[in-house]
Amino acid sequence: MQTLAHYFKPDASIIIPCKNEGGNVKMTVDSLMAALPSSGTEIIVVDDLSQDDCCRFLQADSRYANIQYISLPGLGAAQARNYGAAAAKGEYLVFCDAHITVQEGWLASLLSTFNRPGVDAVSPAIGSIANPHAVGYGQTWNARLETAWLPAPARMETTRAPLLPGGCLAVHSSVFQQVGGFDRGFIVWGHEDVELSLKLWLFGYGLYINPAVKILHLFRQKHPYRVTFDYVHYNLLRMAYSHFNNNRVDKVIALVKPYGKSERIIRNVLKSGVLDQRQDYFKRRQRDDDWFMSEFQIPF
């Protein structure tokens, strides 16, 4: 016999990947629960092999009985998000870091952005928990492909952004599925959100910032698990081979070469099947990387 829960289709699914977050997961979940309506939204916590029991509270307290908990064996940030998305039932997927706080009404305001023509993904303004007046409004790349926060848009209007920060990113579930989600070949951590943003633009979709909605984010000095340049550079190179023309791939290789191990990392990336993915993406995309860099005045 099917239960009512089986037929429940929420408007939105909030997906929270986490790994060794300490008390931050509970802080985030409590903030979300206090700000969300009583129905229409599901929360999914994806625990990617935490070692600190940061998610134990979910099983220990009946208040969290409706939260879906997924345990993974350490697949990395991109895959944790994809697993959460695969379990989600919502029309919209809202990816949130496990160290944020929100205000009442934030989700309805954020999702209302999708009523505007051309909006396929959207992020709110993101401030710092330590300094709420320090706020970023989407991101871009500089000449070294380093992310930089954008200032407030003119007249605080909803506006396009080249890159949406993974700290809070909402996307229509059908769009997410069409582009294949976060890169399934990424490892550990690094470039998940920018790769998805780039892919969405190249596949013909539109990304926006709604500056009227603001969440607060804990910006940490270091990761609560091991992240090395090798991991980050692997993902960067995989993104480059997937989306960039040959000249830009060479520029990315030049960026990582001073750190050492670049030849080994390149070999491993090429063994991962990225050239097949490149061929598939180049056939399917509606815009190229020249368009993207020119459209958003990125000097790379």
From TrEMBL:
InterPro entries: Glyco_trans_2-like, Nucleotide-diphossugar_trans. It holds the Pfam family Glycos_transf_2. One of its GO terms (molecular function) is polypeptide N-acetylgalactosaminyltransferase activity. Keywords: Disulfide bond, Transferase. One of its GO terms (biological process) is protein O-linked glycosylation. SUPFAM superfamilies: Nucleotide-diphospho-sugar transferases. Residues 13-179 form the Glycosyltransferase 2-like domain. PANTHER family: N-ACETYLGALACTOSAMINYLTRANSFERASE, RICIN B LECTIN DOMAIN-CONTAINING PROTEIN. This is N-glycosyltransferase. It comes from Pelotomaculum schinkii. The lineage of its organism: Bacteria, Bacillati, Bacillota, Clostridia, Eubacteriales.
